[in-house]
Design brief:
Helices cover 36% and strands 19% of the residues. The protein is built from nine helices and eight strands. A hairpin with a 5-residue loop joins strand 1 and strand 2.
């Protein structure tokens, strides 16, 4: 055997010994590495920080907020210390989310001052979808369903939206004098006063309004709109609810007040609620009157609406 062949055998043997101790590349690539380097949207398993926004309306936080308003604070007549406590509670929750709630002042019929709580969550567009509820109740009524449920859902929705991307900005309106008020025209006084305080540019940014009122009790889902006003958002929400087999009834209703806050400015407006509302305006409207599954169904419906592109 010549020296050249001996040299080649030595080289091959050395290479074999060198690579025999190294792991062989698997025939199946480790796809988990590739997945975790991709954007997390749409993946089945996503690492979400424990303090980050949730992608599902669970009802956990909404129930906590509803209980705080209905049980810890209780009946919230306008004016009262209890209603002041409710507005303070809502403001603190919004501040904790990094928002800057505004106390939108207005005058009551007796000349004293009151305030609605307003906050905006910026979206991609400055055009706004508006969510509205009311914090006040009638006397001796804890108002768990009417309307701590709406406020609780809006606070959980705010927590879900902050820090995420969605098409239109969201204006949160927590009104404080929507029940019948002495010296005022029936219902809806505080929302009407709020709209009067805005300039045309602010009103022009409002693309659609959804009221969340009485959303935790009742057997039938109703999507209401004022019969002589624009109904596009009611039809949009009705179709979305129908796609989820919630069996909604979309109905035009007569005006229940001479002044209708948003409809009077030609802003498409819908009222989403379960009905008939049991224990309405009574001491029995407490947490026993709140069905978590009803609250979750509406919260999830509205979250989808807020995060979808507006229909043409």
């Amino acid at each position: 055997m010549n020296s050249f062949r001996l040299l080649m055998i030595a080289i091959v043997t050395a290479l074999a010994l060198t690579f025999s101790g190294c792991p062989r590349e698997s025939a199946r690539p480790d796809v988990s590495i590739g997945i975790r380097e991709q954007p997390t949207a749409g993946l089945g398993v996503v690492d979400i920080p424990s303090d980050g926004p949730s992608s599902a309306f669970t009802g956990d936080r909404a129930m906590e907020h509803t209980r705080a308003l209905a049980e810890e604070i209780g009946p919230r007549l306008m004016p009262s210390d209890a209603l002041d406590a409710a507005t303070k509670y809502v403001s603190e929750q919004l501040i904790d989310l990094g928002l800057a709630p505004e106390q939108a002042l207005y005058d009551l019929p007796d000349g004293t001052a009151a305030a609605n709580i307003i906050a905006v969550i910026p979206g991609i567009s400055e055009q706004e979808r508006v969510l509205a509820c009311h914090l006040d109740t009638v006397a001796e009524c804890p108002g768990a369903n009417d309307d701590a449920s709406g406020a609780g859902a809006m606070l959980e929705l705010a927590e879900m939206l902050v820090g995420t991307e969605f098409p239109l900005s969201v204006r949160l309106c927590f009104f404080t004098a929507e029940e019948a008020l002495e010296g005022a025209d029936e219902h809806g006084y505080s929302s009407a006063q709020y709209m009067k305080s805005l300039n045309p540019d602010q009103i022009g940014r409002m693309a659609a309004v959804c009221w969340l009122d009485k959303i935790a009790a009742g057997s039938s889902l109703k999507v209401l709109y004022i019969a002589d006003a624009r109904s596009s958002v009611a039809l949009e929400l009705g179709q979305l609810a129908h796609s989820r087999d919630l069996k909604p009834t979309v109905t035009g209703a007569d005006r229940w007040s001479e002044e209708m806050a948003f409809e009077d400015y030609d802003i498409p407006t819908a009222w989403v609620e379960w009905g008939p509302a049991s224990e309405l305006h009574s001491p029995g409207d407490d947490m026993r009157n709140v069905a978590r599954e009803k609250l979750v169904a509406i919260g999830d419906l509205i979250h989808t609406w807020l995060t979808e592109e507006p229909s043409e």
